[in-house]
Structures are given as C-alpha cells and as structure tokens.
Amino acid sequence: MKFRSDVCGMVEIKDGGDKCIKKKEAIGDPKVCKTVFSDEAIRKLPMGHWFEIRIDDGQMGFASLMALGFTGEDPASIEGELPARANLLPDTYIVGYQKAVYWNGVKLDLETDPFVDILPRRLNRVGVLLTPTNSLVVYVDRIKTMTIDPGSEGLEKIDAERPLFAVIDLWGGAKQLSVQNSLPPTEEEEAAARAAKTAKGPGKKEAKADEAPAGEAAGDTAEKPAEETAQAAEGEAEGDEA
Q: Which among 4, 133, 144, 175 is placed 20 to 30 Å from 13, CA to CA?
C-alpha cells in the first residue's frame, strides 16, 4: 500500500507514498480536511482486506486520535473538495474519532476506545481487517482491540467484491503516519504480542472527555454537518493540536 498524493486533504505525502504528514497550517483548524487514501484498492487476501500503519508522531491527551477504515468511494472519482471529515464520505466505514464507528453514515458508539493504549513516541502500529465474514477488526500493535460484526449490530454488509480503498482521517492527535507492508497477525502472533504486553504491565488509562483539549479533538463535532461544525468550533481550535 501507498498513500495517494493527488487526492488528499491538508496532508503532505512523502517517501514515495510511504509516509504522510499533517501540514502545519491544518493543525487546529476544524474546517480543514486531513483525509488520506490508499493509492490503489486494497488487495483481498484469503484472510480479508488488510492494511496497517505506524504512528510516527502524535500528540496524545485528545478525545480524538484519528479515524481509519475502508471506503468504496474511488478517490479518483471524487469531484470537488473533500469534506472536512472522512465520515462524511459516502460508502465509507471507519473507526475512531471519539470512540465511534461510522458505517456508511450510521454512527455506533463504542464502550471502549480501541486506541486507548497508543502513546506518543511509542511508534504504535494500527491495522484494520475486513474479514471474509464482513467483520471490521482493529488491531493495535498486533493485538485485536475491537470487532464490529454488522449482522449483530443491524448494519448493512460491506460489498467486499468491489474495490475497497483504505481511508485515514488525521483529525486529532495523529500527525505523521507510515505504511507498514504486513499481513494480519496469526493467532499465535497475537497471543505472543498480548503476553508481551501483559508482562510490561497495564497500559494507558482512558482520558476523561472533559480533560481533552477543545476544538478539533471534540468527538461531538463529528456528528454535525460541516457548516455547523465550522461555526461551533470557530475560535476554539487555535493551538489545540500544536
């Protein structure tokens, strides 16, 4: 996988598409798109559609880190400007923002944050898998942190027979990402990663929403139309990601 450079938000694509960096002028501006896509449709493996990125630079303490998942919307076919948030794209299925799943416009609140153990300068890896049974699974450092089964949640199934592209929204603390050319972890790999994590002790506790900086990181802005979001967040976001 590579990041697409000709269709993206205020994000710089570097190293031949292996790295993306949020532009300084986009930091803290809730009206600016920070979405990136894979340059090609994600290859379908026997275990499903899979991609993985590494967070090279990020500022924690926000209610939002980023959001990522899959879209059936071919970036090359998008006309006009990208929406401020990736969850506003049609035919898009993403996890993130403030403990939420956006499933083609339908919002699902999560009880726990799948990114809770991500820490600055840890170089955490985040992978997303769409399984052959249509479940969307998130891994952090090769450990499964969340599974969404659309059938159990009353959601439509994703048509995995057509091209699906990776989509990542750097809305929040994430500043720089690198592509990881990898395969989904086997059960043995995941067990080893979980054992290693347990040996290190407990991870980071979830920050309370009222402790998070205001503005772009506030999860409730993801639920509002772009115009309302811009008005509500105007004057709040200055310096919230700096």
A: 144
Beta bridge partners of 70: 93, 166
The domain ranges of the chain are 11-219
The residue behind tokens 């979405």 is: 35
Secondary structure (DSSP) of 208-233: PGGGS-SGGG-GGGGGS-HHHHHHHH
- pTM recorded for the entire structure: 0.83
Tell which residue, 174, 182, 102, 171, has the closest CA to residue 142.
182
What CA–CA distance (Å, rounded) separates 199 from 191?
12
- Superfamily of domain covering 11-219: SPRY domain (2.60.120.920)
Q: Which residue has the tokens 């076919």?
A: 77
Contacts of 58 (CB under 8 A, 6+ apart): 65, 118, 120, 173, 174, 175, 176
| Residues 84/95, Cβ–Cβ less than 8 Å | no
